[in-house]
Design a protein that fits this description.
- This protein has one domain (about 40-155).
- The protein is built from five helices and six strands.
- The chain has helices at about 1-30, 45-50, 95-100, 135-150, 155-165, and strands at about 40, 55-65, 65-75, 80-90, 105-110, 130.
Length: about 170
């Protein structure tokens, strides 16, 4: 009988260890695949450190009065997936600017080899790796400004062109 009781106690102990191991693996997987992210709150430096290693993290960044939500979703193959959303434009922004940018987002797939050279404090550093409505809004703004510059300088452009063909 004593052997049977020891066997049952040992078996219960192995089952507990097995369940603890499964729970530890699940928690690790949740962190590793980005389901649980480090919340950097409003500390950009905390976020930038996580970004250099593509560790899942999130932060609310304020730049020029605009509120951006950055989320590192984690490694996806040979790239780091980063989600960026412009939550709120600065007060005093024009209605057109707010309509164009506010609430827009984009997902970026930054190659892991580029993370050391990528500056997350400036969108220009990695916008080429992104897609989404925020990137489209940025390009729409660029095109609108370029069109305005061309119209302002139309006389000079026509003059230059006629000199070439004369």
């Amino acid at each position: 009988m004593a052997i049977g009781i020891n066997y049952v106690k040992r078996r219960k102990w192995y089952i507990r260890i097995f369940y603890l191991l499964i729970i530890a693996i699940l928690i690790y997987g949740l962190f590793h695949f980005g389901y649980i992210k480090k919340n950097c709150k409003q500390d950009p430096e905390c976020f930038y450190r996580a970004a250099k290693e593509c560790k899942p993290a999130k932060v609310l960044i304020t730049k020029n009065g605009h509120y951006y939500d950055y989320v590192i979703q984690g490694k996806r193959g040979s790239s780091c997936s980063v989600y960026i959303s412009l939550k709120k434009m600065a007060s005093g922004s024009s209605v057109d600017q707010k309509a164009l940018f506010e609430g827009k987002d984009m997902t970026c797939k930054i190659p892991l080899s580029e993370l050391d050279r990528t500056s997350f404090s400036d969108l220009k550093g990695f916008v080429n790796y992104c897609h989404g409505t925020l990137k489209e809004a940025i390009y729409e703004q660029i095109i609108t400004k370029m069109y305005g510059l061309i119209i302002q300088n139309m006389d000079e452009i026509i003059s230059s062109a006629t000199q070439v063909i004369s």
